[in-house]
Amino acid sequence: xxxxxxxxxxxxxxxxxxxxxxxxxxxxxxxxxxxxxxxxxxxxxxxxxxxxxxxxxxxxxxxxxxxxxxxxxxxxxxxxxxxxxxxxxxxxxxxxxxxxxxxx
Length: 104
Fold this sequence. Notes:
The protein is of the alpha+beta class. It contains two helices and seven strands. A five-stranded antiparallel sheet has the order 4-3-2-1-7. Strands 5-6 form a two-stranded antiparallel ribbon. 13% of the residues are buried.
């Protein structure tokens, strides 16, 4: 049987280490089909951009935030997929814009 608590602890440790050691951060925004906006903070790791924080601002004005401190809830979860800048329709944004949404 898979030890889900161990897997969760390892996942939290991985994202936390990336967040705490990051020297370079990238910020993006993406509009979804339902009119919501996604805000993403990503850091490089082993040649990939890994999402360490993401915030969804729904079309109804609800804000859902995910990071190593809060991986998932009934509304969603922190993606475990690396960003592919050639495939993902993301718009680069200033860090300040991301922070305004994140700390709202």
